[in-house]
Amino acid sequence: MKRRDFLKAISLGAASLTMPGCAESALQTSAPAASLLRSKTAEAASKKKPNFVFIFIDDLGWKDVGFTGRAPGSGGPSRYYETPNIDKLADQGVIFTNAYSNAPNCAPTRACLISGQYTPRHGIYTVGTSERGRANLRKLIPTPNTTNLNSKVVTIAEALKSGGYTSACIGKWHLGNKEPYRPKDRGFDVEFERKHAGHFSKEGKYLTDRLTDEGIQFIEANRDGPFFLYLSHHAVHTPIQAKKELIEKYEKKMPNDVHNNPTYAAMIESVDESVATVMDKLDELRLTDNTVVFFFSDNGGYANATSMAPLRGSKGMLYEGGIRVPMAVRWPGKANAGSLCDVPVIGIDFYPTMLEMAGVPKPSGHILDGQSIVGLLTAKKSKFKKRAIFWHFPAYLEAYNEKQWPWRTTPAGAVRQGNWKLIEFFEDGKLELYNIEDDIGEKNDLSDTLPDKVKELHRILVEWRKDVGAPIPTQKNPQYDPKARAAGRKNARARKKKRN
Ligand SMILES: [Ca+2]
Fold it and tell me: Which helix (H) or strand (E) holds 412?
């Protein structure tokens, strides 16, 4: 790390730059975090069921916030985006440097989070149809997709309700908008969703601010708790739209080769302001000590607006840029504030985590595929069992720029165990192997040099697919035309040359 980046990272807080491991590796905490940790009210609050505020950002890339710049190999925080309030929140909790969404796009990640189950259990593999892109470029017939979360699934809101919680879904749901699939049909007492396209209402109100207002109202109304606020922002998803005054601020700022879109930077700053507003409200109502705050994104960033560098790829891919996301958890008096955790965790872990924190039993007959991360938060790391984590994406996602052409992904699956990651592409059975710790950018495919490791990981992946009943597309698509693929590539190259 360059000295300039090192100093900048240090100035952001007291968290470790290179410390591996979890809560037990915490360094000296920053003053506000330490005061939270020692707070007497926190001790009193620990006897009550905690409130949950889950701040969920749509398409927020791994390097779109400052705090992920503390992860080893990240190259430091963005020099363009500004997220002081999100970084402050992260410093008061545990930063997870290897946190993953369950899928590289919106709906499946949300279905996994709300159900606590991997995608094959509920069948929500992608957004809309799995047959995206041009038919004559698809070699296989992909697995059909489901768009509504099955009513038999016990949602996290339903499980918490049995423990006396009041819940709100504010913002994006994406798991069915008709009865019986709406949030209020699925255990949420309060729901609020925008009634307009884009990020501005007819009256000019910015959506991030509107959702924040609704979240604040819910907190105020339920201050006696326990409550679960699922604050699911539409930012920073397309359309890239932001408040004029913030765009102007970033237009005056020096861009760099990876982050340079003033409107996108302004969208991120509005999210940062939202986080500040919610944290201030918790302080004002004296709820901070008894409220667990989660910060998470549903998939990697949109390649035409941001960059996850040094990670490879972007939203829609099983490379790290598509699935590794910013994550922090603040749990005053319990979580080891100011620490980094490098143990891989994934979206399905939130459900069992919240149940453990709340002392609410697991719903009977409902399979939970994740593992509670309470042990990782509280320095009882031995409580956390080593395991592999998996992705199953038997669908096509079309490219949205020429660099990706023709696909962001073809049907694929992946497994991560320890530092190793294997990706399997179902069209041709291709296997790619990466050592994520040594090669965060997935530049060196080690599948030829380490065939035994490939075999070991592939066996784990195959066994997992059997366990969860994951279908693999094998049927050839009769519309597939290899010539169309070659011609399309040639045309794309020609267009690029003409532009240059
Ligand atoms: Ca998304």
Answer: strand 412-417
